[in-house]
Amino acid sequence: MASAAPLGSAMARIGAFCARRPVWVLVAWLVLLGAALGGQRAVNATYDDEVSLPETPSAVGAELLRTTDPAAAWPTGKVVFHVGSGTIADRGRAVGQTIAALKTLPHAITASGLVTSADGRTAYTVVSFDVDLMTLGYPYTRRLDQATEPARADGVGVAYGGGLDQVVRPPPVQPFGEAVALGAALLVLLFAFGSVLAALLPIGTALVGVGTGIGILGMIAGVLTFGTSATGLAIMIGLGVGVDYALFLITRFRQDLMDGGRPREAAVRATATAGHAVLIAAITVAVALLSLYAGGLAFVGKLGFAGAVGVAVASAAALTLTPAALALLGHRIDRFRVRRPVAESSGKRDRWLRYARLVSRRPWPFLIAGAGLLALMSVPLFWMRLGHVDEGADPVGSTTRTAYDWIAGASGPGFGPGANGTFSLVVDGRRATASADQITGGLDRELRDTPGIASFTRPAPGLEKKILVTTVTPATGPQTAATGELFAALTERTLPDALAGTGAKGYVTGAVAGGFDFRDTVEARLPIIIGIVLVAAFLLLMVVFRSLLVPLKAVVLNLLTTAASYGALVAAFQWGWGDGLLGLPGPVPIESYVPMMMFAIVFGLSMDYEIFLLSRIAEAWRVSRDNTESVGTGLAITGRVISSAALIMTLVFLGFTVTPTVAIKMLAVGLAFSVILDATVVRLVLVPSLMVLVGEANWWLPRRLARILPNLGA
Questions:
Q1: pLDDT digits (tens, 9 = 90+) for 624-669
Q2: Residue 689: CA count within 13 A, CB half-sphere
Q3: Distance, CA of 682 to CA of 678 (rounded, Å)
Q4: CA-CA 20 to 30 A from 706: which of 26, 152, 301, 633?
């Protein structure tokens, strides 16, 4: 390996600039933070979870449906009424006043007549709007409450469902979970390093970086529409990496001081060494997140972009704000102590060094045990079921969950579990060779023979006479596996069999069908994302470590970590093992885009600790040229800091499990498991055992390839 590291030299220059002008750097970041947050408020940011897949059958069917019924294009929501005794008809006057008031709401076009359950205790009206419901905003809930006050005043329960979930769900604010996570992180830092200022500094720099990143993201959202979970995702990742990256720099700085270094020079050396590893780690995470665009799904790609913005700004704060603060504090960083301050390895008798020597003596048992554990944890992955998590997973007592349960618990046309997610079957008979009666009869017969259908309307022509429409109500709820099987049966057997030889084409559409089409698209494109991330990570690490085997091992180990994290995700959500802790009413499918997001994030973050560990191993190798000793030295030196960093990041992620957004809960749980596995099984067992077994070949790189590769240093 070459000893020169041009990128490290560039990082040294950045560290020197920040160390010489610490006040300027601090003021610049505060100004940037204020400007970003101010700009966010000034910009009309938009967030929307609508996914556009124009080539899918559900999208084609929806367009045909709009052709035959223009009103089908109107956004709609349900206002649901329920009484504990008597019937809705007994309160007919109050309910009628409410429906009349709903029609006069801003942007409301009309409200349908009441659809009433068989027992008369539950009913709902469908309100149509002339704008996307997401644009109405949460404050519109107050107008809905005012319109429905007559029904409430007469003892009628009122809840909002359907598309109105986009209006009435409170914004996902979770300061309590974040505060608890950061408080726990502070305790970890105090215990690990013994200094109050050293513990506060990484949290402070992370908060400045995350605040600035969210402000910048908000300004971008004024031009580019993000999904509603984009901000939460950026905060979660930004906080996690921001604290960790600053921690690595501070640890290296404090060890330098303990070894007799001067503060300003120590800040520069920390930036040149640990800062170099931070930059490589941040680039790895950002590249993995941006690779989501390659899947061709703009919705997912923009979520990845939001996460990349969070990582970029948090890492920039760590690499500039941290050395400036360190140079300013100097030896005072350890003034307020809770115990004797420590940083890296404490010498030859360090417990991490003893453990490293144990792994070096018996690498095979460690390798087999570690790989076996990850393989075992990956088993649930083979039962992963993707889908869309709807109002049925909302907290009990919320208006959306109440509306969902009232409709699911009633009987009669328009009610039952499947009424919360019906399918619309659209048959395009404009080029049909059979008559409309033949098509209708065949479709009617096939629908009667299809299991899993609670009811369906007789196929009828719309305004465009040769386009037939029927509504199918499943016997089960939208989130169940049975409804997914019904969707597959309708698209693969029922419609093809009914229309065979007629020349007509059939499509299954509606919100639930669109969700299943999105799921199928994600499943088809996930291998593309995996391939791009793997290749990008391998090439980047090959350049950094100037080795073929080191990046190959890192890629394979992170694949195992990701698979095991998927397994934990399935157990926690799909199998319902974490329902109580996560505040869920029961098992739910894995949100369709979560595995794609998780792969990019987990793979990127999992590389972080390996990069730090391998960087220290590479440094020791350049000095001793003894592979076994280098592995032991690297593991011992990074033991305390990586363990603390992993615990902090895990706590930050778990703090986001209190959010009401289920997709963020899933990402938080998956990321927390990945960090735990990467910092324990991978870092403590698999990496050192593999490095010892491979020996000096770890650092092999063909000479011709070495001459043409840029030298970024490790």
A1: 887 777 888 888 888 778 888 888 889 888 888 888 788 889 999 9
A2: 20
A3: 5
A4: 633
Q: Which of 267, 247, 248, 246 is nearest to 256 (CA)?
A: 267
The model's confidence at residue 3, banded by pLDDT at 50, 70 and 90, is very low
339 pLDDT tier (thresholds 50, 70, 90): low
Q: Which phi and psi (to 5°) does residue 76 adopt?
A: -135, 160
Q: d(Cα 600, Cα 229) in Å, to the nearest integer?
A: 16
Distance CA 544, CA 609 (A): 15
The predicted structure's pLDDT at residue 8: 56
Instruction: Report the distance separating Cα 599 and Cα 288, nearest Å.
Output: 8
In sequence order, the β-bridge partners of residue 122 are 82
Q: Collapsing DSSP states into helix, strand and coil, what is residue 609?
A: helix
| CA diameter of the chain | 92
Identify the CA nearest to 619 among candidates 286, 269, 366, 349. 269
* pLDDT score for 127: 95
Sort residue 429 into left (φ over 0), alpha (ψ -120 to 50) or beta. Answer: alpha
Contact residues for 363 (Cβ-Cβ < 8 A; gap 6+): 688, 689, 690, 692, 693
> Could you tell me what percent of the chain has a pLDDT over 70?
95
Q: What is the pTM of this model?
A: 0.86
Task: Map tokens 């770890």 to a residue.
Answer: 698
Specify burial of residue 437 (Cβ count, 10 A radius: 0-12, 13-18, 19+): exposed
DSSP state of 660: S
Instruction: Specify which residues 159 forms β-bridges with.
Output: 80
Q: At residue 630, what is the residue type?
A: S
Name beta bridge partners: 265: none
Task: List CB contacts of 437: < 8 A, sequence separation 6 or more.
Answer: none
| pLDDT confidence band for 321 (50 / 70 / 90) | very high
Residue 412, token pair as written in the block: 């009669």
Specify the DSSP element, H or E, that contains 470. strand 467-474
User: Under DSSP, is residue 474 helix (H, G, I), strand (E, B) or coil?
Assistant: strand
Is 345 a residue whose pLDDT tops 80?
no
- In our burial notation (b when 16+ CB lie closer than 10 A, e otherwise), range 49-74 reads eebebeebbbbbbbebbebbbeebeb
> Which of 304, 384, 242 has the alpha carbon at shortest distance from 598?
304
Structure tokens at 17: 């600039």
Rounded to whole angstroms, how far apart are CA atoms 487 and 507? 11
Q: How many residues does the chain have?
A: 714
Nearest to 467 by CA among 504, 438, 511, 494: 504
DSSP 339: S
Write out the E strands in 537-638.
590-591
What are the DSSP calls for 38-78, one per residue? Answer: HHHHHS---B------TTSHHHHHHHHHHHH-GGGGS-EEE
- Name the nearest CA neighbour of 108 among 133, 136, 131, 129: 129
Strands 423-428 and 467-474: antiparallel
